[in-house]
């Protein structure tokens, strides 16, 4: 098992090109901070969550030493905040690799899709139909999917391998359910500011994209259900109306679910006979990992996450879903 110090060192390498300040914070994690982090549940030690809590408590990302200072000077407060934190950046870039999966499901069924976004936060990934998606290849840019209506979000993804074909079939969504321990209502004052507190300060383009996705989400708001996986999965699925094809979406969600419960989620999805669209950390699900090509190395930053449909790996990508290597087409 990777230790806390090694996890933060690896995170520093991944994040350095886009956020020198977060990379410096990750590299500043010393023995004292490791001891602090190891005192909270494993799923609460994710760097983005830790850094968001640190900023909420007054640490300045532009000061590389401020994270250690917070750990020294406000240790009980920091530990208590981490133990209960539910910060999730809800990055809509993760829709880029999964929109082709939703398009394939929509093309295969006359019914509109009923989406349960598990770990939804504000539901910014509940809007695959409201995404205009372009693929950038060595030959240029290809429009893969056009949003069904505005407001919408525009994503461009660098792709290689067995790339999905463009589709003219719209993704029809008949219902959306957002399942989260603390679902965010974007209509509430200050909700968007809370949502972006985990975004590195240098990533102004990412914040702008999140604002686009927030507008689109407000136009088609999901039904919000307070709950967790696996215990509340059935309740979320049962909230979908008749006449839709149920699809459960997880994007970076299962890393926050304790290890033994991850397989319980997968087992229950199969028992319910619903589709499952996922973009999850490569290797955390053995069944999905078993369907990966032999040449996939989970230490490769561009294979950080696996894109899968119904438990079968179709592609791997970087942590943010902007570089995708496809090896199976959805619906093939």
Describe the 3D structure.
This protein is α/β, with parallel strands linked by helices. Helix content is 34%, strand content 21%. The chain has twelve helices and eleven strands. Strands 3-2-4-11-10-9-8-7-1-5-6 form an eleven-stranded mixed beta sheet. Strand 7, helix 11 and strand 8 form a beta-alpha-beta unit. Helix 1 (4-15) runs antiparallel to helix 2. It is globular. The model has no long low-confidence stretch (mean pLDDT 94).
How is the secondary structure organized here?
Elements: H1 4-15, H2 20-27, H3 31-37, H4 47-56, H5 66-73, H6 75-84, H7 95-107, E1 113-118, E2 131-137, E3 140-145, E4 153-161, E5 173-180, H8 191-195, H9 204-219, E6 223-226, H10 233-238, E7 245-251, H11 259-272, E8 275-281, H12 286-289, E9 305-309, E10 312-317, E11 323-326
Parallel strand pairs: 1-5, 1-7, 2-4, 4-11, 5-6, 7-8
Antiparallel strand pairs: 2-3, 8-9, 9-10, 10-11
Brief account:
This protein is α/β, with parallel strands linked by helices and 332 residues long.
Could you list the spans in which at least 5 consecutive residues all have pLDDT below 50? none
**Radius of gyration, whole Å:** 19 Å
* Beta-strand content: 15-25%
The end-to-end span amounts to 36 Å
| Count of beta strands | 11
Characterize the largest beta sheet: strand count, sense, and whether it forms a barrel: 11 strands, mixed
How many helices does DSSP assign? 12
